[in-house]
Structure formats: structure tokens, C-alpha cells
Amino acid sequence: MSWHPIVLAALTAPLVAGLGSATAAAGNEDLRISGPITHENLAIYFFHGPSAPGPVPLTLQEALERRQVTVYETGSVSQLSIENTGADEVFVQAGDIVKGGRQDRVLTVSLVLPPHSGKMPIGAYCVERGRWSQRAGEDASTFASATSTLPSRHAKLAIMMPATQSAERGYRPAGDVIGRPQYSGPMTGGASAQSMVWASVAEAQRKLSDNLGTSVAAPQSTSSLQLSLENAQLAEARAKYVAALRAAGERDDDIIGYAFAIDGRINGAEVYPSNGLFRKMWPKLLEASVTEAIAEKRAEQAAAPATEAVRTFLSAAESGRASKSKVDERLVREARDADTAIFMETARATGGFLHRSYVAK
After folding, report:
1. Of 134, 124, 144, whose CA–CA distance to 66 is shortest?
2. DSSP track, 153-165
3. How is 231-288 classified by DSSP, letter by letter?
4. pTM attached to this predicted model
5. Beta 69-76 vs 32-39: how paired, if at all?
6. 46, 121, 187, 260: least buried by Cβ within 10 Å?
7. Where are the domains of the chain?
8. Between the CA of residue 14 and those of 48, 55, 162, 197, 329, what are the distances in Å?
């Protein structure tokens, strides 16, 4: 397969013809918002709308389980290689954590892999600081699973922020790597984006350990976020939230996304083109939201925001300063950086979005 390098620039112009601006494309005024559905300090809201026609792609985890996709180690922390050998499209979401290789990574861009894609480079950040060798029972050359997504607002912001910045502000084009971290200069507090991810992982591990009363760091790799997410006591605490909330996301066939609030503050939202794709992603998304709620749990719980506050949050995120990048010859990505949140959309160059993500600052 042939594909083009990403060209990143801080453009305020609309997306390519047929897509319109991100704000116009989102059409959130047409979405019905239901909820909140609450459990302890976590509130869930659902977006209801029509589903785009056509087949629903496999998720990355489905494709890995079927051995239709391979994620390869390249020896570079910020770059992996991914290949779809199957006949179905495969959806990869920014924030997907891949386990294995020389260290666990989080992928930085949402995209759809075409059938029989050939090997394609993809950007990544490390979420397991320190390890750079085979872990017992694993293959150091490939990644075996993608069961989790980032359960940290701060880590999500770290991987999204570079795409909102222009080259003249210290960022550079990604060369020939899809979604490769763009950062080349100082960020908040003088930290690099990778350093911010590491700090966010350590913070999440510390908060989870404090609230659970036991360390979630795994002896075989204390810095691994993925292994912490597999901690038995965390899984037990998470199961109570999931039991209370999961069925609500599977009840209606017009749910295409969700938002969530923790301790009375809207944290983020995800929107998909169809109910079919949302249903596939929902268990992973819910577990990540629950994990973050457990980490942030306080003795006193604030009331859940009203549904209108969620709509205001979406609109505010979409009103931010825009920048645009080309993922490959098929896909484009637009980021909007507002005072209160970051909005990111991946869309097909021919029209139709693949994924929209909103993260509160």
C-alpha cells in the first residue's frame, strides 16, 4: 500500500472539501443526550443519533484475537509498525494500550486500517518506563493484546496536545510516521509529551493504590500501566461500577457515544459513526472511565452535571483554535484547542468521520 506522510500545520481553514469545519461536521445540536446514569462518583451520559451505513470495522483487540492484525516492535520508543492481513477494516483508537514488545505503548492516532494494508508505521508513547527487554512469557517483537485504553485525563491531554500546535511554536511534521508524537520543544512546566505521559501513569498508579489500600504496581514491572490495570483488587472494585452502568450503554440501538463526569466535573466524551462500533468499544471505554473514577474518588461526592452542561462542553471544545493534519491519503485529522478542552476528529478524506474525542483540560 502507498501512503503519504503527515503534514502538520496550524490551519484555521475547514477540512478538505466534503467535510466542512469540525464544528459543522459534529452536528451535536442533532444529538439527543440522555442521562446521567450514576454510580458513586461516576456519571455517564449517552449520545443518541443515526448510524452511518456500511459494515462495522473490527476493533484492534478483535483483530489481534483473530490474528488478522500484528503490531510490531521497531526498537523506537515513539514508533511501532502495524499490519492488517485480513479482509476487514480495523478501527484503531488513539489511547489504545498495546501490551508486549520491549515495553507497553499507547497509540497516538485514531484510524481505520484498510484490508491487506501492508506494514504501516504508527506513533506511540511508552506507558511502562524502564523496561526495554522481553517480559516473561511474552514476545519482545510483537504486541499480543489491546484490552485497555488510557484511564487518565492528563495522559490523554499529553498525547493530544502536540497535534494542536503549529511548527513555528516548537512542533515539527511527523515525517513518515502515522500519528507519531509531534513534540520537539517544551510543554507545560517544561516537560516533554512523553514525560507528561510517564508522570500521568505514575500519578494514576499512586492514586489507585491510595484509594484501594494496596499497591497496584505489578512485581514483574512496577511501571507498567497495563499490568496495574490487571490488578485483582482494582478489577474487583471496577466490577461494582461496571455492574451498575454497563447495561445502560447496551440498551438502545441508537447510542453512538458517551460522556462522563467524575466528582461533578465533566471529564471527556467519545463519539462514533455507528451504534455498532460504539457497542464494540463500550466495555473498554467504561472500564477506563471507572478506573479513573476509582483513582479520583473522594470522601465527599459532588452532584452530577446536568445534560445541558454536557452539550455546552462539546460545543466549547469544538470552538477552539483549529489545526489540521493528514493521517494518510485516506484520512484527515482535525484538532481544536479551546480554553476548557481539546477536541480531536479523524475523518475519511472522501467524507464521514471515524472518531471524535473530547478531553477536558
Report:
1. 144
2. HHHHHHHHGGGGS
3. -HHHHHHHHHHHHHHGGGGGS-TTEEEEEEEETTEEEEEEE-S-HHHHHHHHHHHHHH
4. 0.88
5. unpaired
6. 187
7. 22-56+152-360
8. 26, 28, 19, 30, 17
